[in-house]
Design brief:
The chain has about 250 residues and is of the alpha/beta class. The chain contains ten helices and nine strands. The longest helix has 19 residues, at about 210-230. The structure holds S-adenosylmethionine.
Length: about 250
């Protein structure tokens, strides 16, 4: 799967892309992440990417020309910036005003072959960027970040762990909280030692009786969902039922 991130601050991604699961997925050729600096499409001596808002008010607004031209150029690029052929991919603009990103949206995005993630800064985007590009708009939550980069990393992180071959055990992303296993919170987890500071691992997890372990986990998952996230239990049966396997 290919991600193209369009940003004014590509350096923000360097540590993230060179560590842990992301690095492994990239090294194995399961994922590629191409970074594009929107400023490269700005014209003039000072390459301005933002300007003051018409009508007055605080802050600066991202200008339409560099953003629109950057998106159009990246959509036409093949992998690694070479000329096409390329799938134009799904264009996602990060904004606190967008559809709320969650595990279901991550699952929906994970079947795409290419995602373009457009990161804003300052007061956000000139309205004509939305009007001309008709992007999908996604928000990572009801709060305001300084820029879309952290939101883009959140989306990449959640989507990449769903791709076949990225996690050691495919089941772990099905059984995670909110995931298509049952859409509830995951049960408690324990590892060695069997006892720590007087707290023992529940006996049932030590006995190797798999039906009993499955029962215990299902009950724990329900209890903690009831205690912490009643709203998840109020979803309809269809919302909680595992989705059919994808072809
Ligand atoms: N003035 C904008 C508003 O009130 O809707 C907020 C602009 S914010 C300071 C700058 C950029 O950060 C946005 O253009 C967007 O790309 C990103 N951003 C901020 N909060 C976000 C969120 N919750 N989800 C996704 N992106 C966000």
């Amino acid at each position: 799967m290919r991600f193209d991130v369009l940003t004014l601050f590509p350096e923000i991604f360097s540590g993230y892309l060179s560590q842990s699961l992301l690095k492994l997925a990239i090294d194995r050729g399961l994922v590629r992440v191409d970074l594009h600096n929107i400023r490269d499409w700005a014209k003039g001596k000072h390459r301005p990417v933002d300007d003051r808002p018409f009508g007055g008010g605080p802050g600066m607004v991202l200008k339409p020309e560099p953003v629109v031209e950057c998106v159009e150029a990246v959509q036409a690029m093949g992998a690694g910036g070479e000329p096409g052929p390329a799938s134009p991919g799904r264009l996602i603009l990060l904004t606190p005003q967008g559809r709320r990103f969650d595990q279901r949206v991550a699952e929906e995005l994970a079947v795409s072959d290419r995602l373009l993630l457009l990161c804003g800064r300052y007061e956000g985007f000139d309205q004509r960027i939305y009007d001309l590009l008709s992007p999908e708009e996604l928000s990572v939550g009801d709060f305001v970040l300084n820029g879309g980069e952290v939101a883009a990393m959140t989306i990449i992180d959640a989507v990449v762990r769903l791709l076949p071959g990225v996690l050691g055990d495919e089941n772990s992303s099905i059984e995670d909280s909110f995931s298509r296993g049952n859409r509830l919170l995951e049960h408690a987890q324990y590892t060695r030692p069997r006892e720590y500071r007087g707290l023992a691992v529940p006996e049932v997890l030590l006995g190797g009786n798999h039906p009993d372990i499955a029962d215990w986990r299902q009950r724990d998952s329900l209890d903690r969902t009831r205690a912490r996230r009643q709203d998840l239990l109020e979803l309809g049966d269809d919302d909680r039922r595992p989705d059919p396997p994808q072809d």
